[in-house]
Fold each of these.
Amino acid sequence: MSELSPDAVGRLRDLMAKPELPDRYRLVEVVGRGGMGVVWRGYDRVLEREVAIKLLAEHVEGEAWVARMERESRILARLEHPGIVAVHDAGLLPDGRAWYVMRLVRGDRLDDAAGRFGGVGDALRVMDRLAETVAFAHAEGVVHRDLKPANVMLGPFGEVLVLDWGAARGDTSADDRASPASSALAGDTAHGTVIGTPGYMAPEQAAGLPADERSDIYGLGAILRDLLAALPGAPPKPLAAIRDRALAADPAGRYPDVVALRDDLRRYQDGGPVAAYREGPLEVVARLARQYRTPILLVSAYLVMRLAILWFRRI
Amino acid sequence: MAIESSPGGSGQRGAGFPETRPSVLVALAGRDGEQRREAGELLCRAYRAPVLALVRHRWPGKEADAEDVTHDFFDALLEKDWLARFDPDKGRFRTFLRVCAERFAANWQQAAGRLKRGGGLTEVPLDLVAELVSAEADDADRRFRDAWVKSVFGLAVEGLRDEAATAGRERHFAIFERYDLADHPAGERPTYRRLAEEHGLSESEVVNHLAWARRRFRAQVLETLRRLAGSDEEYREDVRELLGVDP
């Protein structure tokens, strides 16, 4: 066996641990770690700002994973949206691992923050922003495929950011079509690959079937489920119905697209009827009473005053 | 954390590894004689130096005995099927081996003392081993771990040398050996340009050669760790620990 000096062991350890990035970037500390990637807090010497640098985890080996990381950076670069972290740079390490640099996001993960929500309004505000972002991605031909509270970051100024697009599939991306390696990791059932998180992935994903936009609707429904569960008491029936429709086991039973889900949530917020729930007559009355409370109160007050005037005149 | 599985069934742990060779524990428990022999050899080569370092640390001043204890330990380990008692739920395989070695060496020393007084060797009370597997790290453990890291890197370098020879890439290995393995006085590490001149290559070719060797070295280290680990979890912990990065 090769006899290595202590210095050589140290160098090899550094070689394995510290990614050899271009001089422009300095690595500071590991701030996140997932099954596939490691995220470092870094510093961009040229622009003199902190950045986040994601690269393949040390134990991840293989061209398919490199292709997947490269695809993730390309997808992110394509999705310019306030709800998606911008990518600034990308490349390959000398050891073959892919990396990319993105904006350093500060804030709380949704699964940590949900317990501090003040009420349904907070949850719906987050869901609205999430739905907007996912709808934008879908319009760009990108399906996230791993939506869950842990992949959502809430910024200090109310930002809602969808993270970790490593499992995303961009149907219109040229490399998705061209690279067998990437398609092997992109949910191609011919390869039998399953990507997602139990409890959040749609049944068709878990079964190894192709995931489409409706799979993301399921993921959004699962997030809504968690947010409502973190609030005290049972959710209102229309909201529970929206959640249940998004979580329908059969994709055909879900909302046709994310915009329809978002619109239903907005209708609920505005006090209107939601598509997912058929109200009884009393519920319609109660809802209308809530929705038009102010004019009803004004009219009622006016009528009471008129009646009072009439009554005094009779006396 | 997302789960990802593939037809190979390697899941996250495998993450792209072609699992061509079973782990040492699986191979030693199997019936394939060649695999058992090869796994036993790998086990001994990976752990000989750590066990030797441990024995020397625990019983300083008995250098002559340390080699004998280490040799006898591996003989006993493989012959007496002690590895069958390893339970991954109770701790790391590496810790299990360290505790086994410590118990064996302690008994060996006692027995050696008794021999001088006319006594004989006794069995290692391995039932105690499971309880000791979770023993807290101490200086001996650190020495054991450091020697193990060196062994793993040494095995990986050897694997890389063989791989390079098989692939006709001896020059790739030579550049790696010169640039990353050889010790140089401060400030005298060869530059890419100098390596290019030495090997009649362009600088970019040197970079590419080095990149290939480093990439394959990394793969060799990971494969060695995978084969030596007692469980998937231990493999991941080893990777993180060896790379000095906390998850």
Amino acid sequence: MILGNARVSRERLIGRIWKERWAYLFLAPFYAPFILFILVPTASGLILSLYEAGLTGQRFIGFENFVRLLNDEAFVHATINTFLLVVGIVPAVMVVTLAAAVMIFPLPRVWQSFFRLAYYIPIVASGIILSMIWLWIYDPNFGLANHLLSVLGMKPVLWLDNTNTALPSVMLVLGTMMLGQPIILFLAGLGNIPPELYDAVKVDGANDWTAFRFVTLPLLKPVMLFVLVTQTFTAFQVWVIVLIMTRGGPAYATETIAYRVYLAAFQFYRFGYASAMAVVMLVIAGTIGLIQLRLMGEGGSNQ
Amino acid sequence: MTKHRLAVGALSRGLRRSGVGTFSQALAILLLAIGAVFMLFPLYWMITGSFKPMSDAMTLPPEWWPLHPTLRNYEQLFRTAQTYRWILNSFVVASGSAILAVVTSAPAGYAFAKKAFFGSRMLFLLVVLTMALPRQIALIPLFRTMQALHWVDTYQGLLVTFMAYPFGVFLFKQFIESIPSELLEAAKIDGASEIRTFIAIVLPIARPAVGAIAIFAFTGGWNDYMWQLVLITKEELITLPIGVARLATNLTNIDVGLNMAGATVAFLPMLIVFLLFQDYFVKGITMGAVKG
């Protein structure tokens, strides 16, 4: 009886899939490489974190890699730095881009497109190029940054060679790459707010600030959530700037988790160990993402 | 007093003529302009620096404008035939990425948007979930897959990133959902085949999404530094970002002018693409987050 039911439903399923074969055919060109190049490697990465694996051979060692991570000074510094980087830069980016978008929005079209363009161009230039330029600007001997300080009568600073200034200097470069996209998103979000709402609160005697506080902010919440999550992930994955400007130094001051993963995997060929770091990244990123969703009250649903 | 009022009047009239309404708007423009200078100055510094002889690039006070402009850096950059090869490789990877991303994502997005099929919700959820994954987790196994397929140091290996582009599927689904289903039904009644319906009706309407994904994948492929660094060992396959970054990390010979020339050459194609297709960039960024 049960077997018979199973057979009927299996036949029904096969019949259904045959009927819907076009959907699967349209899906296949994407899904085949998706499985091969994304899903399977992701699953393998999770498994690999339990192995000691190098260029040749691998050995199951359970959670040993994770225990080692706790005692890895460079990794501990990298984790702290990554945390500082995210906490230091993401709120600043949110405030600056929201303010910029609110200022840009009422401007005439020409100015709107000019500013949108100007703030997005560093992203187009990419982290490699920006790092190369800033390396020159930060140069202690002939860089522009110290020249400006000397004009202002201040002492020169070893921007990238001082443990106190290295991480903020990296963050500044990263910051220039993180403004363009949120500004575009906030501008689009502002464009979706019906102007009548502002007229309504103006009739009630609200000033610009109250209008911003009680109309703009609540209605931008879904966009803010999206910006918060995407920018956190961007800051979380920084490594090119580190690779080109500081190589993690001085004294671990600019190590990041993503940079450690690269080093462990492709400089030292410790594939299992590097995968364990990547798993830590995954867990932290997932946790941050969930917390942010909670904090913002799952605002995405009212879009 | 009247003089003062006249000056203010002239100022605000001048502002209005240039399209600026009020004083607070002028202030906003001023603030935004200061920010924009900060964003754009490094690129100005790069381009002007690329025309400075080495001694001028490393002098203080700095030359705000190249006083002895020279093409020496570019000559040196292009003297080695490799630079042409880097540019060629980057163009192959970038255009290949754009084509592959569109060809694979568009039909998949169409299937998710307009077809009811078994498992569609689960399959789409997987696509969205992977968009949030840190890339590092799959990087090592993917590298080993490349070794197994003998795709290390090949163009197809470099194109892997955009053979399956989850964001592309997501964007196409979002966009194609807004096409009325009646239109597709009508085509079916007229006897159009599935493939014809997709190519002749869906794709033309989804052109903004095609443009956005092509542009994202093009710039993404051009700047796919992490994967290129991992996958390339042979000289012939070095791409422009890799080659240029090598200039920067060459510690034995720091030549700022040469570095800036390399950076400029790597930047200009992206700048041109961005300026030509900026509407697609904006559409692509906003379509993913803000519906409508």
